[in-house]
Each structure stands twice: as C-alpha cells, then as structure tokens.
Amino acid sequence: xxxxxxxxxxxxxxxxxxxxxxxxxxxxxxxxxxxxxxxxxxxxxxxxxxxxxxxxxxxxxxxxxxxxxxxxxxxxxxxxxxxxxxxxxxxxxxxxxxxxxxxxxxxxxxxxxxxxxxxxxxxxxxxxxxxxxxxxxxxxxxxxxxxxxxxxxxxxxxxxxxxxxxxxxxxxxxxxxxxxxxxxxxxxxxxxxxxxxxxxxxxxxxxxxxxxxxxxxxxxxxxxxxxxxxxxxxxxxxxxxxxxxxxxxxxxxxxxxxxxxxxxxxxxxxxxxxxxxxxxxxxxxxxxxxxxxxxxxxxxxxxxxxxxxxxxx
Length: 313
Hints:
The longest helix has 33 residues, at 32-64. This protein has helices at 13-24, 32-64, 72-83, 93-120, 128-157, 171-180, 188-214, 225-254, 267-278, 287-312. It is globular. The two termini are 31 Å apart. Helix 5 crosses helix 6, helix 5 (128-157) crosses helix 7 and helix 8 crosses helix 10 (287-312). The protein is mainly α. The protein has ten helices and no strands.
C-alpha cells in the first residue's frame, strides 16, 4: 500500500487517505452535472489564460517564425511602431473561443481520467505516473481541437499587414482559405506529440504540488489563491521547458506557405532545416517571452478553474 504513491509514509498514511478522499471531492461518479461543471470551469480557465497570455504568445510566434536574426526587443518595438499596441492581441478572437473550449476539454478529460484511476485503484491514492497519463490523455484528445485553432491563430499573428491587401481578413476568412487548401489540420502530428507529453507533465506537476499540501491535512478547497497561482505558474513553466523545441517545429510547419509547402507535416524536415541554418539555438527562438508568459497565464488558468469549481460546488 505504501508503494501506491511516493508521498505516502506510515506516519502520514491516515492523513493522506483523508486528503485523497477530499481530492476527488465526491466526484468519483461521472454524473452529467459533474461533467458539465468540469467543462465550464475549464472554459473559464481557458479564457483567463488567453487574456493574460496573448501578448506574450504573439511575441513568441513572431520570434519563432522570423526569417532573420531578431531579438525580443526588436519584435516588441516593431509591433508597437508598425502595427500599434493592439497588435499584441492579433488573432485573439479565435483562441478566446477556441482555447476556452480546448482547455475545457483537456481539464474535463483530465478530471474524468482521475475518476477512472480512483475507481481502478479501489480508493487508493492516484500515483504520479497515473496523473501523467491523465494529463497525457487530455492533451491527445485536445490536439484535434487545438491544432486547427492554433493554426488559424498563428496565421493571423504572423500577418503583418492591416490593410486591404492582407491575405486573411479575419478568423472566418482564414478558416475558409485553409479548408480550401486542405491545410486546416496541418501540424496535427507534432501537436499530438507536444500536447500529449506537455499536458502530461503539466498536470503531473500541479497535482504533485497539490498533494504535497493536502498530505499536511489541508483540504483542497481550503488552499489559498496565492498557492494555486504559484502551483499553476510552476506547472506552466515545466510544461514549456519540456516541449519547447516541438513548439518551434509546430510554428514553422503552420506558417509554411499554403501553396506547395516546403515541409508539409514533416517534423524531421523542419528539424534538419532549422539545425542546418541556425544550430541548436533555432529550437529555442522565442523561449524568453514563452517563459515570461507561462507563469502568469497558467497561474490564471488554474486559480480560475479551481475557484469556478468551488463556486459551482
């Protein structure tokens, strides 16, 4: 029994089992009401993530897809000078709706998988590898939604013209043109790899930190907002550190030309091309704004998710 979780010791066993019972908070039965609440809380978390993180994400994508050497300050200055401050929120409408849905799916699937493992373990604590599998499943399922949504967002973020000559007039026009070119799902393979491993690490780290507090006898619902923000920020940072080179490859694939693309969906071709041109540093372009974004955006995501669940009961 003591091997079922790395946090259990003979001294804290009774407390930990009580905390684990509180962890599921009577959610072991996947009732329609429980599922709806999980989805609504996830949607709220996703909206918070976009509003906080979009300026950082726009900067990151511009850096990742730049054709020549450029710096973070160069991108920021160029955006403000040539496109105005609101350019940091280019393409926000799509992720505001889409990421809200995506985060609701990944959180909803994660919660469903936690219930599955809680039942499978016959009430024993969920282990850390199982938390990774919960998150990985959520990431893989979410990839089929997030891949086209991120494709549209990236196309709009990297479009520098605001005039009538711009290629995409807005999200709907972009979606229509990508569908016509049979390119809407471009980047799905690398997205599945990125999201599966990344979201697995994401929820693993967050739940490990939550468990660490709960084994002290603190109920999950009593954890203060600042701790939830801290844990969410740490989880988001670990997520991006674990998958960043894959994110660069995904961005290159999704900004490849629509007609006669150079790379299509080949991760290997992109990786070889990036390494040949710029070496290992190519896989970390835009890393600084991503890390700057990771902590506040994911802190907002988790604290919003947890408090939404608390409000709905």
